[in-house]
Write a structure and sequence with these properties.
alpha+beta, 4-stranded antiparallel β-sheet, 2 helices, 4 strands, binds zinc ion, Prophage protein
Length: about 90
């Protein structure tokens, strides 16, 4: 694995500016919120509250972490509910 050097003036960045970013889904936070990373320049995007794509800032990373936590908890609760209802 090569270490990615982060330079603002990298040729990949210029490529992206001309041809557009090649976003790939890297993380599913909830069923509506996802995180994307550009395969070329590693720029990260996320879905915001309006369902639009926005730059993944540390603030959004924080929000997504909370959202993910709530989402997984809810999913787990739903699962345990179905389990307990089958017991009783
Ligand atoms: Zn890019």
């Amino acid at each position: 694995m090569k270490k990615a050097t982060t330079k603002t003036s990298s040729p990949l960045r210029i490529y992206c500016d001309i041809f557009g970013h090649k976003y790939e889904m890297t993380k599913k936070v909830t069923s509506h919120v996802k995180e994307y990373t550009c395969k070329c320049c590693k720029r990260q995007l996320t879905t915001n509250g309006n369902g639009k794509l926005t730059e993944l800032t540390p603030k959004y990373q924080e929000i997504n972490a909370i959202l993910e936590d709530i989402y997984t908890r809810r999913m787990m609760r739903l699962k345990s509910k179905t389990l307990s209802s089958s017991i009783y």
